[in-house]
Write the structure tokens for this entry.
Amino acid sequence: MKKFLTAMSVVLGLGLATAQQTAPAAKTQTVKTVKPVKSAKQVTPAATTKPAAAPSGMKLKKDGTPDKRYKENKNLKKDGTPDKRYKANK
């Protein structure tokens, strides 16, 4: 009787353990068609382009970003536009 109860508890335990697993969802295949883009000019990334001209009095680093060591550049973002978090720029 003891062996029978042990076997039934093992069967019941394994049955409950496998019941908790979910079956993987069936994957459906979808076909996406992409139209080629016809572009006359080639687009260059913005990170590699340098700003055309710096505003007067603005000191720039070699990569073209404002140098934050100077007083006139303290409240500027990396792209040289005024940072709206400061009261003077609102």
In short: The chain has a mean pLDDT of 74. The first helix runs from residue 2 to 19. Helices lie at 2-19.
